[in-house]
Input
Amino acid sequence: MANTRTTPSGTPTNVSQKHAQGGIGESTLRPDGTLKVTGEFAYSSDMWHEDMLWGQTLRSPVAHAEIAGIDISEALALPGVYSVLTYADLPAEMKNYGLEIQDTPVLANGRVRHHGEPVALVAADHPETARRAAAKIKVDYRELPVVTDEASALAPDAPLLHEGRDDHHAGHVPHPNIVHRQPIVRGNVEEARKRADVIVEGEYTFGMQDQAFLGPESGLAVPGEDGGVDLYVATQWLHSDLRQIAPVLGLPEEKVRMTLSGVGGAFGGREDISMQIHACLLALATNKPVKMVYNRFESFFGHVHRHPAKLYYEHGATKDGKLTHMKCRIVLDGGAYASASPAVVGNASSLSVGPYVVDDVDIEAVALYTNNPPCGAMRGFGAVQACFAYEAQMDRLAAKLGMDPVEFRQLNAMEQGTIMPTGQVVDSPAPVAELLRRVKARPLPPERQWETAGEGADVRALPGGLSNTTHGEGVVRGVGYAVGIKNVGFSEGFDDYSTARVRLEVIGGEAVAMVHTAMAEVGQGGVTVHAQIARTELGVTHVTIHPADTQVGSAGSTSASRQTYMTGGAVKNTCEAVREKVLEIGRRKNGSYHPAWATAELLLEGGKVVTDGGEVLADIAELLEGEEPIDLELEFRHRPTVAFDLVTGQGDGHVQYTFAAHRAVVEVDTELGLVKVVELACAQDVGKALNPLSVVGQIQGGTTQGLGVAVMEEIIVDPKTAKVRNPSFTDYLIPTILDTPSIPVDYLELADPNAPYGLRGLGEAPTLSSTPAVLAAIRAATGLELAKTPIRPEALTGTL
Amino acid sequence: MDFLRPASWEEALAAKAEYPTAVPIAGGTDIMVEINFDHRRPEYLLDLNRIALLREWEVGEEVTRVGASVPYTHIMENLRETLPGLALASHTVASPQIRNRGGVGGNLGCASPAGDSHPALLAAGAEVEVESVRGTRMIPIDEFYTGVKRNALAADELIKAVHVKNATGPQQYSKVGTRNAMVIAVCAFGLALHPETRTVRTGIGSAAPTPIRAKAAEEFLNAALEEGGFWDNGKVITPSIAKQFGELASGACNPIDDVRGTAKYRRHAVGIMARRQLVWTWEQYRGTNGRTLEGAA
Amino acid sequence: MRVNFTVNGRPQQADDVWEGESLLYVLRERLGLPGSKNACEQGECGSCTVRLDGVPVCSCLVAAGQVEGRDVVTVEGLADFARKREEHGHGGACGTGACGSAAGVSTDEAQRWSAKGTDSQTGEGVELSGIQQAFIDAGAVQCGFCTPGLLVQADALLEQNPDPTDQDIREALSGNLCRCTGYEKILDAVRLAAARQGEAV
Output
């Protein structure tokens, strides 16, 4: 019966990897690779439990409405339905959640603020039963006027998205429909402008991008004997979820036991809660395991998106090409709930100048509350939108000055020692000019690459591809460049840390290390790197990766390009402590036999304790035989940061900066407005490539997401109704393999002395510069200004 | 929902007569999306997968008969000589996996203006063979599309095959989408030269409530080719003829603005495709162009 | 309704199937074969690709009732399927009988493959098909959600065309979306598998 439960199928287990060398710097292969290619790797949607029910969410069909009433009687009466929950059924005092500001209702409380907001939940014995029941819930919506942009959000009679705000930004924002505002002022723009020989002003628009991870939101909640719940889920940050889930369930955190299931990509879209709380509520209400799996349609409503933005920029430069000043205003649309908007504002403002030296700046970034879909974290996080705009400005400035766009950028490129607009000194390598040099020096792909031997045309190599729209007619090539700057890790004074537990023991005569963290492996290869670090630090060959769960301390989020730095750093840190324990045991057992135990620098290598001179002192397995396993759990922190001043924006707010540059080569069918990206070369400084194969894979993947938002990806929201018009993979297009070019990668390894192994977080930077490089190339091919991304064929053909 | 599994064509017709609301499912590439996304809950699904004759094709003297469920992959691979326009159109359908399942019958049954095969069928000239327990009839393709996602089928009829005229001259097909593969048509255009009758035919997709022909463009081009003696002298088409043909094709459109594109762009793009295809087909007709389109069909 | 069909060589029976269920749902939720992935359920991503009577199809768009009496191969059976194909020669494991003949491939086809790692010993004792091993070796797997569908599709490509050009690979895989890799390492993997297949002939 309900209380005799077995472990659900698909429960994550240890993955083990043996590798003779396989330390850092090598392209070792994924420890979960075999599971993933055989279909055995259990993703969150693969979980299955005897006797489980299916959860379904009823979502609002309108963007803004009062809910005058909800009638669940017909839904409850449907055979096979076990539970129907609304706001009235929420068990705890706390009924909201949120990453930073708890403004998001678990279920709508008398009002919906965006299209697709969850209103009610159903648990039933089959997904179809649950869907039919949800359709039978009668909700009386009384529609309200919608707020969709800055003008309507700040109008005198604008409806307030959140009345009576008491969050910590409420006191300093100029209007309650502004989530957060961050100005940054340095130098004197008015004076500096007088030195400018040319001034370029621009207004840019960045569309709403979706993370479009392939594995939709899903998971399984299993009620426990103790009144708690076991939750198997795909997320980016288990402990952040836990902090938000437990209070609304009315449970102490220890009664919500979370385990990371297989994660089908994330890209920021899993930083917020989706189905986690809902599945737990249904499981606790029915006392049965409940599985929830969004389909692609629901997934578009199930997570936050990248903030669409309006960006207003003014730059000045002297006639010899030196930037004099920059003034900008960045308006991000945060949608109905705060999510990560405040931090996105911090990034957008503090990185708005780009990787350039500009002493006089006047910057303002805001995020709005509107009735549009909530927006939050996505790869690049605030820096992406700014990069699109400032790189367009750089090209226009160079053109106005008659300079080469790369040389102009190099002339103004920041370097180690440059002072950021926030006053922070860039204190590690910043090879911006060198990255640009590298992508420019690369030979260009051959012209008319679509031509085949017999004078024919391979349409697959042409704009339009398989659709056979051109055989070369109207096709013009363009080349464009861009470079960007991104911060790594959580900024602005956030206590950003990670935890790693490492256990070293002898199993079958062999020293085996087990690494246990709560790091969400979302595909980035953190598990590969953890095994490499353990091998390097402990000299073992056999490493086991424990599933990520909340039985170990927080690893922080798999976002902000931070996991190799932070949880990699934590694994290194704990391994070093374990190594000390090994050496203590060695000294205790063997110290009297060899003076080197006391005097030499000792290492663990190839299963041995060796001196830095290479002399073998002991076999690790023999040393540990008969000893208790060494089992340590330690936290690791990066250097502290501070919040930006709310008036001047000054403060050492960031941990580390990271840079990438792209050169895009495109071919545009100028008559039809179709684009083929032919090559998208990237150069990036990664500090230290812990796993070169993974490094290149990250850069290519990030580059492609930038390409997507350059030429096709946009969630289209109707400005009159605030409803999403294209929530499907039929109409929200992401690049196919025929849209994605060759992506040659050139990475530098200039160590950051502050970071573990000197590494530099790398996942996001390529997403920044890829988009403006493609846009620049299209502008070069067409001569058009193109101030909005993604560009549509209409924009290239004057048919908007 | 009931799932009807007729083992033969006769059983299928009987089932459709008994349950006229039954929705036929063959490749499933449209109806299953609607079911998965909870857009539609038909009372009956009528599975046509077990009916072998729907997957057969036959190349005749003048006409090729293509069973309603012949997968696009087979059309691409086997009928590129006789039905080049339809083969090209088939190659633009969705993805290889979808082309392995979907067939022309589904396109005709759904009668979406965005169906990829329609412009090719309109340009080539075709008849749709439909059958019910009452008998068989042939519906000329020009009379088949009756409204947005509506066709000339009676409630008890099923599509058995499409009879397409074998090409006697060059045919082309293009569609515009905002991705280089796997995309639903923003708009599409097909052109077929019929040297034996000295006529041309066209088809336009996704730029009007139904698939249509650009009749004014056809008439203009028929006259221009005749007047200039082009069919006999094999001269290069003049740019002004190509331009005007494109403009007339554009003028035939009656498109809407939607999430995939603006009406203005659709008109524009149809004009460009028409102009280009006229040049491609005519050059091919003149025999001067050895271009082969690798990967195009 | 009840559906009987063969999956990865084993007869299977699913009971109480709702008529609107897809083959994908039946595989994943009723037969304990969740390897085929449910990423879009609208035929746009290819993650659910299986062989149906030898033909690669999106299993999300096949109604469960349509597979009665038919033969399905999923990623879970891919290694076995590939092994039998090798043992019985081409066509032996190919349901369509339309499989191409094997021809030699030069190792040049592995043009830009440069993975240095050689030893993923997690798979000790696990039999993998050539394409599966190549995906691991080339770094073509990140989150892995697209991987099962890509493997089934790429395996079918190499069965038909053992020596594909880059554009052939791109065309064959154009119905399989990947959001992590930017596809470069997937191309590398298919080139590598083709080259290794060629060497083995």
